[in-house]
Amino acid sequence: MTDSRSLQAEAGEGRRRIVDPLAEFLHEEAAGSLALLAATVVALLWANAAPDGYADFWSRHLDVGAGDVALHLDARHWVNDGLMAVFFFVVGLEIKRELVTGELSDRRAATLPIMAAIGGVAVPAALFVAVTAGTHLSSGWAIPAATDIAFAVGVMAMLGDRAGPGLKLLLLTVAIVDDIVAILIIAVFYSHGFSGLWLLEALAALALVLVLRRAGVTAIAAYVMVGALVWIGVHESGLHATIAGVALGLLTPAGEVRGRPVLETLEHRLHPFSSFVIIPLFALANAGVHLGGGVLQDAAHSRLAWAIVAGLVAGKLLGMSGAAFLGLRLRVGALPSGVRAGQLWGMSALGGIGFTVSLFITQLAYDDPAVQNIAKVGIFAGSLISGLLGAALLLRRPDA
Q1: Domains in the chain, start-ordered, CATH in brackets?
Q2: DSSP 191
Q3: pLDDT tens column, 6-25
Q4: Is 339 in contact with 167 (CB distance < 8 Å)?
């Protein structure tokens, strides 16, 4: 009897180790969506009340270092290249946890969200290319391919029991696979001026991380210093610097090191900073659009804005749900407990909220501020429509 109770206690503890970090992650993403929304509103108000002041503030340069290793970046790029590396480090931690102990660790459970995510990237990108074919705007094809976890989970949180834990878990898993694809896209298609020597420096620094792990070093300061070397190497190599954050996150041990759950501890400490400081700062630096001067009219007549709206609204809805239903039809995947097939429509629509990473890719795809503003209008419109559509579908068919 004692052995049976002991085994049950151990099993319960194992479930808590998996469920508790996930519940904490979802809670912080939902709460962070409010901070993200507030920062977006402030950015829009600032950009329209004092457009020159907004532009001047984020274009101020802060130089760090000297000589050949000096970094000459403006305030916006310190946010986009520097702080966002921490955001992607947290993403890397969550990806690692999902691969080791989460939904992505089970082949059958992982198949459906993987298929949905791939469909949710491919179809929006195809629609974007179709609408912008024959123009210089097609370089932004990946803008509607991303899902904003914070806003999507935030909308689900507002729906209460209409979106149960299983559906939130499915959306989160799809969004994480979506992030993996987006990271690969950024690394392959939106990196410029490649330098093999700097990449070797970054790889050497990553190897040093493994050496420190092997030697049993647990001091966080040591890893922070080596992580900075990885970031510098990746940044100077021509790859986008945020890739360094993902790589470091994936190298983090998922198990315990000298009795300390390293991954869970780092995620617990950094996720609130990412959700409530970094992402709002990113929105503050990138979401400001001066709506005067005919920007809205230009967007209404622009292929770019309509391509983004089509990709986020129609592309995500059809791509994610179509691929998911195909997986169910072929019986290669299964829905999480408590999730009904009809809810895939609402979940897929919410996948069209592409705010954060869509804005991020916009900065990489286009150099012209006027083009960036039109793209941002398309992102705002497409994300808003997708959010409302997803909520409506889930409210209308709670038991479908």
Answers
A1: 16-191+240-396 (1.20.1530.10)
A2: -
A3: 434 444 444 444 456 667 77
A4: yes
Distances (CA, A) of 383 to 33, 220, 327, 359: 13, 38, 26, 11
φ, ψ dihedrals at 264, nearest 5°: -65, -40
Q: What sign for the dihedral angle of Cα 176, 181, 187, 192? A: negative
Q: Determine phi and psi for 353, rounding to 5 degrees.
A: -80, 95
What are φ and ψ of residue 71, in 5° steps? -105, 120
Q: Are the C-beta atoms of 184 and 146 separated by less than 8 Å?
A: no
Q: In DSSP terms, which residues pair with 60 in a beta bridge?
A: none
Q: What is the pLDDT of residues 189-242, one digit of tens each?
A: 887 777 888 899 999 999 999 998 888 887 888 899 999 999 999 888 888 888
User: Do residues 115 and 326 make contact, with C-beta atoms less than 8 angstroms apart?
Assistant: yes
- pLDDT for residue 302: 95
Beta bridge partners of 74: 61
Q: How many angstroms separate the most distant Cα atoms in the chain?
A: 77
Positions in the chain short of pLDDT 70: 1-22, 65-70, 397-400
**pTM exceeding the 0.90 threshold for the entire prediction:** no
pLDDT of residue 315: 96
Cα four-point dihedral sign 65, 66, 70, 76: positive
Closest CA to 49 of 359, 284, 288, 287: 288
Evaluate whether 93 touches 252 at the Cβ level (below 8 Å): yes
Closest CA to 240 of 288, 182, 177, 284: 182
